[in-house]
Amino acid sequence: MTGADLAAVVAALAAAGPVDWSGLPAGLRGAPDDETFEVVLGAERDEADLLQLPDVADGCAARAWLRGGVVVLVEITWRTGAPAWPPDSGEGPEARDDVVDGLVVVEAGEWIYPQRGLAVVTNQDATAARRMFGFAPTTLDVYRRLLRPDLSTVRRPAVGMTRGDDL
Length: 167
Prior knowledge:
Radius of gyration: 17 Å
Largest sheet: 8 strands, antiparallel
Order of helices and strands: HEEEEEEEEHH
Mean pLDDT: 84
Number of helices: 3
Strand order of the largest sheet: 1-2-3-4-8-7-6-5
Distance between the termini: 55 Å
Strand content: 35-45%
């Protein structure tokens, strides 16, 4: 599969939502791109390359994580117009984990459906999906150890404060 196929898969995730998603297709490859960043995924902090993708819809950004050129995780993030949560139909998640989204801790805010290759991060009151992650169907343990992204933001001191300047 090509980079064009990746764009189609990400658009399908954004359009289908959580009820109709059945996981990333096997062997999906990212487009060769010099604009990747080395990052880590999962509790084991396994190395991956992060690729920023074109927006899939108005107010909806996308990224992909690759290992050896193969896409292992895609993300849809809604800046505006996030879908309501939870969906009206479908089964409940296998797990609900606490998640740090930026600087905010969202208790039980990550809904994980590992057999469907899906994880959803909600807003604080669990009424809207802020982020949706797609991956190949797996176990909860494998998702947590090897795929779960770190969404926390590190707060750094202002530059002037690090040089001992008086403010």
